[in-house]
Structure formats: C-alpha cells, structure tokens
Amino acid sequence: MPNDWATFGADLHLELRGTRLRAGLMDALREAVRSGRLEAGTRLPSSRSLAADLGTARNTVADAYAELVAEGWLTARQGSGTRVARRAEPRDRPRHRAPTPPATATPVHNLKAGTPDLAAFPRADWLKAYRRALTTAPDEAFGYGDPRGRPELRAALAEYLARARGVHARPERIVVCAGFAHGLTLLGQVLRDRGVRAAAVEPYGLGLHADVLARAGLETPALPFDERGTRVEELPSLAGCGAVLMTAAHQFPFGGALPPDRRAAVVDWARASGGLVLEDDYDGEFRYDRQPVGALQGLDPERVVYLGTASKSLAPGLRLAWMVLPAGLADEMTAVKGTVERASSAPDQLAFAEFLRSGAYDRHVRAMRLRYRRRRDQLVAAVAAHAPATRVGGIAAGLHAVLTLPPGTERPTLRAAARHGLAVQGVSHYRRPTAPPSPDALVIGYATPSDSAWPGALEALCGVLP
Questions:
Q1: Contact status, residue 293 vs residue 167, Cβ threshold 8 Å
Q2: Max alpha carbon distance in the chain (Å)?
Q3: ∠ at Cα 196 (192, 201), nearest 5°?
C-alpha cells in the first residue's frame, strides 16, 4: 500500500508508506507527535473509524494504538478514548522557541588559509589506486585492525617520509589517525598521563590546536616571538613544561622556517629536560625557491614527535594523518588509540598506500607545487601593482602569504572585504591572548580558490587593499 493517508481534524494528514500498514501507521503517529502536529491531549479517532478511513482491519489500528500506548506516545482510558500523551518538557528547554539567527551570506571569494584547491583533487588517479587496493586487499583488512593503522600504509609512509622529509621512521613507530587534531588529542592524553603539566605553543597559530591540548588538561603557555621566529631559548624558564608544539619547517601563519641555531636549541632543551617536541609538518612538501627544509625530527627521533597529514597535499575530507613516535611513546599511543578509536578507515588507508607506492602522490605534489607557485607569483605581482604600500611575506613555501598593511588598516580592510563578499582573515585572528600584537596584516590562502575562481578572488583582494 504505497500511499494511504488519513485525516485527523481539519489539517493533519498522516502519510503511510510501505506495505506494512501497522508499522507505517505507528511511524506516522510518532512523527506527528514528535513534530508537534499532534499536540498533547489531542483525542485520536476510534480504531473503528480510522480503520474504515484506511480501508483496513480494525485490529490493525487497535494493535498500533496499543503498541504506542506501551511506548508512552499515547494514553488510553475507558470512556476517554485514545489521546496523545502529555510529556514533561526538559527543564532547560525554553518556553518559547528562540528566533532563528539570520543565515550567514556565503562569500563570493574564499581566501582563508588552511585549505588546498579542492577542485584539483586527483579523482581519476585516486579511483585507480582505490580499485587496485580493494582488489588486492586481504579479507582481514575489513576487520577492526591494528590501532596503529594498516601495515601497508605504515610501510609506504616510512619510505616516503624518509625520502621526501628526512624523517627517521620505522613502520612500527607510525600511528595513523583521522586528522592532525585527532593525533594531537591522543598526544595530549598521553602527555597528561605521563604527568606533564604544560605544553608550550607558538604565540601565533591555530587556536584549535592549543584548545585541544588545554582540553587534555595541559597548560599552554605561549613562547615569545621575534623577527627570526619563535624564541625557543625561553623554554627552560617555563615551569612544568614537558612539551612544545611547533611548525618548525614553515611557521603558521608568518611563514618562516625556524633558524638552524633555534632548531638545535629546541632539541637540546628536549634532551636536557626529557621533554618532547611536537612537530606539525602541515605543508612541508610545498617549498618553491629551493629544496624543502627537512623535518626537525631528523635531528633527534627520540625527542621529536612528527605529525603529518594529507589535508593540505590532497584534501582534508580524506581524514588521513600520521604520527612518527619515539620508541618509548609508540606503545603508549597505540594503547590510547585502541581505547578511543581503534582504527581509521581501512579502505582509505589501503588506497593511500597504493597512491604513495605507485608514484601518483609524488606526481600530484609536483603538479600542485607548480600551480601554487604560479598563484603566489601572480599575487605578489598584483599587490605590487595595486597596493604598493602593502608588503608580501612568508612566500618561500606553503599555501598562504602574509600581506603586511599600513598601521591601523587591518580592521577597516577586513570590513571592506566582507562587504565585497571576500572571506579573509587578519593575522590578529591567530594571536594567542598573551602574545604581543603584530603589525597589521592579512593572511591570504592563495591555494583555496579553484583555478577558475582565482582571477576573480585576486581582483577582489586588490580592490580592498589600502
């Protein structure tokens, strides 16, 4: 019976779909009560009249009513008929529905940092890798699996990271996770279990990451910053600090690489104090003017936790990231991950392993490196032509640039951008509360727009610069 219906009163219609009339009637009544179309106390038709309305047996309706009474949706009393049950509202539910906030207008152009060109995702090559991976996958790959991740992917990552990023990695020390924040959440729990009280952070960066560590129960003091980057020599003065989170190869958002003497200094601090350096290598493959700066982890694999992700090189929707851990931390991390979320998606891991082994990942990164470098050069040229008072920095690597503005113009420029449908963020958006203010600047994610949208986004940006 595909579309039977019954009318209660003047305007209430119950649509009954499917071939099982009793089940359909029960579902329709539940939804009518849940949505408020049938108010508490409403008297329902007798089973005889509703059965006649539906053209079915009276017992079918009587049984449906009886089950809904048993579930608490309806009440039935002799002489009073069947009615919608009165249910106490939760104490925290407002008596009047709050007004719906106005919808936020979708920006015409998006230049926020942190996302690659999603239109450039290599769909055809990924599909080939997925098919090959699924064809050859063992049956056990579709079980719960090892919390560390599929061995095929950990082996492929160990080879790739050693070759491309200078990371000392063995498959048994790699743990695959569902994004950088997921890995950082697990690390925060392990650090807290070890008795660490604080994990230092850079004074400018993604607030989400510091929040993740804070939710794990860790204090997150911000280190000082100067024209050479994060002042890691201040780490010994932070009481109870057992870890530091850094973007050493390409600082976010300012874009510089940590100088060699400070790279050595942060590793020396970790060795002397027994602390750990948490290295966020979020876009380490994208360096344009020379070979990429090697990962900090190569200086001391026993004191540096390396965290990488496919979110910038491929797409954040894949939810693939990885940690390369010191020997003493790998088992603890595996145990924690096994209790929180035992395994990430096995088919996606297998496909990524095939994508790495086949060379498709290297080809994709090389192609995107050329594309993003062209955009960077176009951005630099356009700003020089239209806003000579604006200086472009942080452009040696990565997917974003920092546009330093004349003093006092960051907020007016952001307001003008919003009026013109341009989504962009100022550098103040990334400042930790205790960090001193930096010069006014915009952080421009030039990788975010598609190729077709990029010219319009660049024109809109130049139109709002002071």
A1: no
A2: 89
A3: 100
